[in-house]
Amino acid sequence: MAKRQTTQARTYHHGDLRHALVVEGVQRARAGGLDAVTMREVTRAVGVSPNAAYRHFADRQDLIRAVAAEAQLALAHAIRARIDAAPSGLSPADAAVERLRRIGLAYIDFARTERGWFTLAFAVQDEQPSAGIVTLDDEVVPPFQLLLDALDTMRDTGALDPERRPHAEWACWAAVHGFAEIAVHGPLQWQPEPVIDALAAAVVEAAITGARGAPAPTPER
User: Fold this and answer.
1) Model confidence, pTM
2) Residue of 142, 121, 17, 206 whose CA lies nearest to 215
3) Bridge partners, 135 (sequence order)
4) Which regions of the chain carry the CATH code 1.10.10?
5) Strand, helix or coil at 195?
6) What tens digit of pLDDT does each residue of 173-218 get?
7) Could you tell me which residues come within 8 angstroms of residue 74 by beta carbon, excluding any fewer than 6 positions away?
8) I need a surface site. Which of 10, 87, 133, 172 has the fewest CB within 10 A?
9) Domain formed by 2-57, architecture
């Protein structure tokens, strides 16, 4: 009887158990990436049995999907913060290009500073999404949506030829994500920070130039 009362007290203390499990998973992912998120360790930290978690998640992969969604939101938040810090007074076209530039730089910075979340953010996706779209639980993932919106704005303001708009998101993402992987897990991880910063800026500029087919305007700061 005493044991049963203790279990009930713990469950009541946690309230929304699903939320508590996701929060713990997010914390573990931040420190250790995908491998750190296991049912056993997450439930142990929350103070419930693994069986209790299965009332909310079908399996570990289901939990990882929920944690990955939070990591994607964190990345999107970092990108929006970088966009919000853009200089004012730019023309609509220049502002649109600057927005894309900041998305790329924020993406790389997030990968370098939040390695655990970055590793997990795109570890799972819907297996049958709409063609050419990255979704999770039938929703376009927030960082990808920000990229789509930025390129659409460039097209609408004349910064990007409409004929070059189709699939431009993949060229941009491939360049930036590829560099982020090299910086975090590849040979650049041992380079000094200023070197990586300079190379990141160069890669983002190259991605913008490639998407536009013309040099990207660089506003004065």
Assistant:
1) 0.87
2) 206
3) 140
4) 2-57
5) helix
6) 999 999 999 999 999 999 999 999 999 999 999 999 999 986 655 6
7) 110, 114, 117, 121
8) 87
9) Orthogonal Bundle (1.10)
Structure tokens at 135: 């979704």
- CATH 1.10.357.10 positions along the chain are 68-212
3-state SS assignment for residue 136: strand
d(CA 7, CA 25): 21
In the chain, the N- to C-terminal Cα span, in Å, equals 68
Q: Given the structure tokens 């502002």, which residue do they identify?
A: 95
Six-digit token pair at 168?
A: 């431009």
Please give the torsion angle defined by the CA atoms of residues 65, 70, 76 and 79, in that order, rounded to the nearest 10 degrees: -120
Contact (CB, 8 A) for 162 and 179: no
Q: What is the CATH number of domain 68-212?
A: 1.10.357.10
Cβ neighbours for 194, distance < 8 A, ≥ 6 positions apart? none
